[in-house]
What we know:
The protein has about 200 residues and is of the alpha/beta class. It has helices at about 25-40, 90-105, 120-130, 150-160, 170-175, 190-195; strands spanning about 5-10, 45-50, 65-70, 110-120, 135-145, 165, 185. It has a seven-stranded parallel beta sheet with strand order 3-2-1-4-5-6-7, with helices on both faces.
Amino acid sequence: MKKLRIGVFVQRMAAPPEYKNNVSAHVQIPCKMAELLRERGHYVEMVTTAAEGAAVLPDCVPEEMEVHLVSYGKRQNGYIMYNGRKSGVSLSRLYRQLKELRGLAKENRYDIFHFCGGNGIGHLGGMLRLMGLRIPVVVTVSTGAFPERLAFLKNVLWRRVSAVITSTRYFAGKLLESRIPAQTINHGILKEMSGV
């Protein structure tokens, strides 16, 4: 089996220091996935958005894992747990984020770039492909709102993604209603992580 170089992108991994042990599943699952891929001999790096202030990476990120920070394309700050909400995307920040992600993929010679999160992550992966990224972009979608507003435009981005994965048949059905085919993988990671 060929050993792959894989970049795993998760937005807003950082948290205030007092929350480094209380981490969202949107961070825990990709960290566990990266750990499992590394155990199988693949080279894996995490990529996340830079946070403001005294943010720290959560304890579930293995110490030996290389983590790259990129700009955040939205107006809100880099914490998942934040007070107040500035909605929307900043076009200049989004362009900077996409440029940094594409540069990382090329510089680190990724064979695959794997994005984890909500439906906006699919848009981000599709935009990278539109910007000329020539490696497969895989998206694991765990949450989101479907059907999407401006779906006819956003589906152009979804069609650029190489593969879409989700962990529930319900969400796979929601994606399919929007003509986005998805592979369902019942991973059992949450059960393993909770010890149930």
